[in-house]
Amino acid sequence: MTDKNNLPRHIAIIMDGNGRWAQEKGLSRTSGHREGIERVKEIVKAAAELEVKALTFFAFSTENWNRPKSEVNILMRYLNNFLDREIKQMDKNNIRFKVIGREEPLPKPVLAKIRKAQELTKDNTGLTVILALNYGSRQEILDAAKRFAADVLKGEVSIEDADEGLFGRYLYTAGLPEPDLLIRTSGEMRISNFLLWQLSYAEFCFPKVCWPDFHKKDLEEAIEEFRKRERRFGRVHGS
User: Is 91 an annotated catalytic residue?
Assistant: First the structure.
């Protein structure tokens, strides 16, 4: 893809289908997650080459704690390994790393590595890679409302000043552009409590391929589909 005009500034991805991919191949679910991490690395590299500004992966939801404990433990170990192996390379490539979501009950060693990674890469000016980790959008909006209410009580803001821009500063994604394109792999057509506020005007793309089979060419196809759409933001056609 050589034409970099009309690119989505921010792409959000729900990485769905790791377990199904593994089951179809007679492998363990953890094999699907392991292959899924390889796709994360591939898509990060591709997005950086395309000069996308931000890329958010829905890595682990607040509901995912309900999965079998053995699977959750393996996912945390994979995350720990990812932070060990990939952050230095991201920093070398001028990529900024950020995590959104609640810290509790993430393991303390993982939290320490997340903080270190964010600090190391905070001044980088290329692609911003965001992991939505222990994330739920309803919880995010509720947390934002609580922080806003606390600032009202302290006299730091007034209710009369409240608008979308001001409230957005209380969200986990404060300072980031809103997603222009949402991709959910495996053909499922729902957003599963992901970036409910931020996706208000995003274009949605639901490729049928499972996440472990989602490659650079699939990302480029989703971007080409995005380019074909007319984003009206409430305006009439052609205005």
Answer: no
